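Exercise: predict the fold of this chain.
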Amino acid sequence: MSKETHKPGFFKKWWISIRPFSLPASTMPVIFGTVLAVVYGGVSLNIGYALLAFIGMVILHGASNIMNDVYDFSRGLDKQPNPVSGGVVRGIIGLKEAKTAYISLYITGALIGIFLVWQTGIELLFIGLGGLLIGVFYSNSMKISLKYNAMGDIAVFFNFGILGALGAWFVQTGELSWIPVLWSVPMSTLVIAILHANNWRDIHSDTKGNIITIASLLGDKKSLRYYGFLIYGPFLMVLGLILIPHFFFPSFPALPYTFLITMLALPKAINLWKKANKRKKPVKPMDFVALDGATAKLNLSFGMLSTLALLLDLILPLT
């Protein structure tokens, strides 16, 4: 195990271990679903429920990250720290300590979820249970692990995208709806891009460890095309969700024109595409190694702009 020269204090080591750079991938859909419920659900914001939903997602995502580090390290997949490594591979927390931590976090997150179910409705139980099961089985036993059997992409799409937005909507409105599901698809796609960037970088080590990911199935060249779809596709999806309902499904709410503001994140996507294309001869040594972290920043920008689009439509409706 790689050791840190100076081990950080208690709070810093756990902050590193939950991998904070990744948290916006799961929390932005929660924020988006909450704001969407207020703007289009016509409800008054319940700040307490919103905070609990946000905190619960952070806790569960942190638990999943620590558990993922434990199993990746135990299987010999993560041996050397990289810029976005967690605490296990860095040697600042031990395996036993990490296992205790992620179990405790899962229990805490589940208790928050149960309280919100009690306060809002039984439907939330099924949304939360689905998310919890995906998290637990994401990187557990090799035979049932989603991550190790080419199901990681679809897992994060639902867990850190669709289900987060739908759950946050339900917490505020007490009703289920297709609106948070469809309108959160673009940012959910960017969450896949974060994972794919990671798996793309790790094709060699994953293949050596008999780990199957979409990236390892596609290989390097097709992974580049897939990555292009994942980072550019959300912008096309926004246009589709704005225009298609007007022409083909007039009864279904079209995405507000204010969502065109998400195009401000397009230059970030273009920059990522350049780095991906130059992966074999990067301008900076860490450009491809840290592509997942850079993609997470695109996801954060896109999610913030999407939420801002909702607020702008509330103030200046253009639909």
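Check your answer against the key: The first helix runs from residue 10 to 17.
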